[in-house]
Amino acid sequence: MKSKGEEVDYKTFVAMIEEGSVESVLVEDSRIEFTALNDEGEEAVFITGRMEDPALTERLLATNAKFTQEIIPEESPLLNFFLIWILPMVLLYALWNFMMRRLQGRVGGLGGSEMKFGKSNVMVYAASETGKTFADVAGQDEAKEALWEVIDFLHNPQKYREIGAKMPKEILLVGPPGTGKTLLAKAVAGEAKVPFFLISGSEFMEMFVGVGAARVRDLFNQAQAKAPCIVFIDEIDTIGKSRNLSGITGNDERDQTLNQLLNEMDGFSSEKGVVILAATNKPEVLDKALLRPGRFDRRIPLELPDIAGREAILRVHAKTVKMTEDVDLKGIAKYTPVSSGADLANLINEGALHAIKEGRSEITQSDLEYALEIILAGYQRKNAILSKEDKLAIAYHEIGHAIVAAKQTDSAPVNKISIIPRTSGVLGYTMQSEETDQILMSREKFLNKIVTYMGGRSAEEVILNTVTSGAENDIEAATAIARAMVTRYGMSEKFDMMALETINNPYLGTDVTSLVSNETSAKIDDEVLRIITFAHEKAKEIIRENVPKMHELANYLLEKETMTGEEFMEMLEEKDDGG
Ligand SMILES: Nc1ncnc2c1ncn2[C@@H]1O[C@H](COP(=O)(O)OP(=O)(O)OP(=O)(O)O)[C@@H](O)[C@H]1O
Ligand SMILES: [Zn+2]
User: How far is the CA of 422 from the centre of ligand 2 (A)?
Assistant: First the structure.
């Protein structure tokens, strides 16, 4: 993309725009490339630095110059938020770009991996070095309870030996990413004051056959010498994947590594005081041999925290930073459904960074609110250049979601609406907040959610008489809910309470097995479509009934770019004068 061109300063660039000599502009992340007529009246390429200039869009729109913005989205910290939120609009090409970058990243990673032989690079922490105790782990009381026994055993293996008790020496921590599996394992070592060996399953997997197995052997030799101790194997599913699942050709490297692991696990007895903790978020792919009685037969489930758990986690992390007295951690906990402990730790850190940026010595409520948006939607893209038509469509789309949500009973209140583009590729979003965690969902609630998802596109149709690609995520999320209603929750009369699909991995909602014939499968599709069509019609009806309010609110949002739930409700409930 980089071409040679004459460098000019930003002022000259603006002057050339005003003069009308600029023909096309490409705005990249750190520079702007443009073509314009030079002094000789010939077309030439120029380069200038990238400025934080909010008026640039306006200036360019006022001319006939063609301009393009290179959008380089980054991975949103919480893509799964799409399911809870009313979905943000995402540019198709931004997503594509994002996927390409991920792909490239992966290829790059492979090529760059080092080839290590022999000694494994297992990290060893002395007891004091993990520095973690149960006090660092908020919530997860059941897991802590179960692990206390292990700690007691490590404190005093003799006691168990004398009475002839067998300790479960292999324990599997199962739960979604970021729920504190690693943290908990470290805390066990910290509480027991024993050395902690940490290795990640993916580190066992080498490009050359035999190296993984050698590493396993090496790890266990070191551990036996340091007993009592804890060996923690993160991502055990990367080595322990069922041999049936690895395809016809098989994967010799993985098989050998897994066999070695099984051998080692059989070879040492718990009396030595080596406890193996392993973590996975894909327990169902594990090889049966790993789960036989006597091996990882004890499982400790870790769940995403509920509202009280989230508050507790925020409090743990708030202790390590300076914060004003008046921050409302309970409120933040309310707005972060389906957030993991890792997300919440990250939120506090983003808040701290923002406080520094603003020159404050303590984190305030506004810093946390700023961080909340980053965690939910990604960083702001201050210089994203959107055409007037796009901005308009995004504003109506988001107001569409919000009005549809507000006009339905039994739907969560709107908390915030924004049309500031984000680095995640999100162009706008509407956030709703639930007062409590939703554990049981009624059919009405599901339907309301789907109708709300339909609100964005419906607004485009009714008001602007067009449709955009911005509803991509809405469509995906709505379809997923409608499908689950039919196939798993028995909420369609046609199939009564018949199970049509089973879910393989509760942490990856999409990993399902169909239980039905092709014929039934087609009927399921019909049923899903029926629900979607019904919801779409309902959303359009709500929009049609509120056209004057749509205009009023969308104009306000266009001007302000963000609005709070209160502002929104106030304007919505105000009597129309004359309308
Ligand atoms: N219950 C919790 N209490 C306090 N902090 C937590 C909790 N759960 C997670 N965290 C924070 O999140 C960070 C990441 O958690 P951790 O790495 O232990 O998760 P994990 O379950 O091992 O994730 P992964 O599956 O991605 O490896 C921790 O270092 C900690 O800061
Ligand atoms: Zn949408």
Answer: 14
The CA distance from 417 to 81, in Å, is: 15
99-158 pLDDT per residue, tens: 444 433 332 222 222 222 334 444 444 434 678 899 999 988 889 998 998 888 888 878
Residue list, annotated binding site for ATP:
175-182
The pLDDT of 258-263, averaged and rounded, is: 81
Burial of 156 (0-12, 13-18, 19+ CB in 10 A): middle
| Residue 279 in contact with ligand 1 by CB distance below 6 A | yes
pLDDT digits (tens, 9 = 90+) for 427-451: 888 888 766 666 788 899 899 999 9
How much is the pLDDT for 416? 86
Under 8 Å between Cβ of 257 and 212 = yes
Tokens of 70: 């290179």
Q: Specify the residue with its C-alpha closest to ligand 1, atom 6.
A: 341
Average pLDDT of the segment spanning 402-422: 87
Displacement of CA 190 from its chain's centroid (Å): 30
For 193, phi and psi rounded to 5 degrees? 55, 50
Written as one string, the DSSP assignment of 375-413 is: HHH--B-TT----HHHHHHHHHHHHHHHHHHHTSTT-PP
- Nearest ligand to residue 90 Cα: 2
The domains found in the chain, sorted by start residue, are 6-69 (3.30.720.210), 140-301 (3.40.50.300), 307-377 (1.10.8.60), 388-420+440-573 (1.20.58.760)
Say how many Å lie between the CA of residue 453 and the centre of ligand 2: 6
Average of pLDDT values for 44-59?
74
Residues 339, 343: Cα–Cα separation, whole Å? 6
* Residues flagged as binding site for Zn(2+): 397, 401, 474
Between CA 147 and CA 279 the distance in angstroms is: 14
Distance 83 CA to ligand 2 centre (A): 11
Residues with active-site annotation: 398
Which residues are in the CB-under-5-Å shell of ion ligand 2?
A: 87, 456, 474
Q: For the chain, what is the radius of gyration of the CA atoms?
A: 28
For the record, the structure tokens of 350 come out as: 């983003």
- Looking at per-residue pLDDT, the higher value among 521 and 87 belongs to 521
